[in-house]
Design a protein that fits this description.
The chain has 224 residues and is an alpha/beta fold. It contains 8 helices and 10 strands. It has a single domain, classed as Rossmann fold, CATH 3.40.50.150. Strands 1, 2, 3, 4, 5, 8, 9 and 10 form an 8-stranded mixed beta sheet that branches. Strand 1, helix 4 and strand 2 form a beta-alpha-beta unit. The structure holds S-adenosylmethionine. The site of S-adenosylmethionine (SAM) has 23 residues, from strand 2.
């Protein structure tokens, strides 16, 4: 059994129907611009080297590539067909010219050190909502090798209120998504996120509601 559906390769037929946009959760324009505007509001500058963790097929990437200085967008994802769909189908030639192919890495264990870059800011939209909690720790361990003090990772989660049992399924009022403790889509208590990264060189803070249409909340990690 696989931990989520993202190991599946998109067929040419599905790509013709733009199925890759649905595969990453739809809301193509809405969540694309939402994540871009959020990052700008929280300090992203065109001169920064920016990492999109679980970048998928350029839902947000196309906005970031357009706005960042040439070569400053980097993406990592486990699904090669999604990365390819994003590059081939969602970027104009002008945007392709700003994004070296070597800035897109296919990897399922967050080995971002392979880029040989020190990132200032990183983002993981709807990635840890599809993964068991151990992957958050793995990602932060790997990202610590590719960042310096003060770097920031923003990541979204379905959060279980502290006064609810996280062992049951949970319906999220905003968007009506039902999440689970042991299967995709996952929810976690914020206290559990916090405990899971003990001993790592990251501080954690709940940013909270950022108007995600499916009710995912934003969490900020700051490199110590
Ligand atoms: C819901 S999609 C979101 C994609 C993108 N962040 C966006 O906002 O459009 C989740 C993405 O996480 C990727 N992903 C899931 N597990 C991963 C892992 N272990 N390593 C790298 N990418 C992963 C999937 O392949 C998929 O592209």
């Amino acid at each position: 059994m696989s931990i989520n559906d993202y190991h599946k390769k998109l067929t040419d037929e599905k790509l013709e129907g733009n199925e890759h946009r649905n595969f990453v959760g739809s809301y193509w324009d809405e969540i694309g611009s939402l994540q871009f505007n959020f990052m700008k509001d929280f300090g992203l500058k065109p001169s920064m080297q920016f990492l999109d963790v679980g970048c998928g097929c350029m839902r947000g990437g196309r906005f970031f590539v357009s706005w960042l200085d040439e070569g400053n967008y980097f993406g990592i994802d486990m699904n090669e067909s999604l990365i390819k769909a994003g590059y081939d189908r969602e970027l104009s030639q002008e945007l392709k010219d700003k994004l070296p192919v070597k800035n897109l890495l296919i990897d399922d264990l967050f080995r971002v050190n392979k880029f040989n870059v020190k990132f200032s800011m990183a983002l993981a939209i709807s990635v840890f909502t599809h993964l068991p909690l151990a992957y958050l720790r793995l990602c932060l361990i790997e990202l610590a090798r590719a960042t310096e003090e003060g770097a920031v990772l923003f990541a979204t989660f379905f959060i279980c209120p502290e006064d609810r049992s996280e062992d049951d399924s949970l319906m999220h009022e905003q968007g009506g998504v039902i999440t689970f403790p042991f299967s995709d889509p996952y929810h976690f208590k914020f206290s559990k996120l916090s405990n899971s990264i003990k001993g790592l060189p990251w501080d954690i803070e709940l940013v909270g509601d950022w108007k995600h249409p499916r009710g995912q909340l934003m969490v900020r990690f700051v490199r110590k």
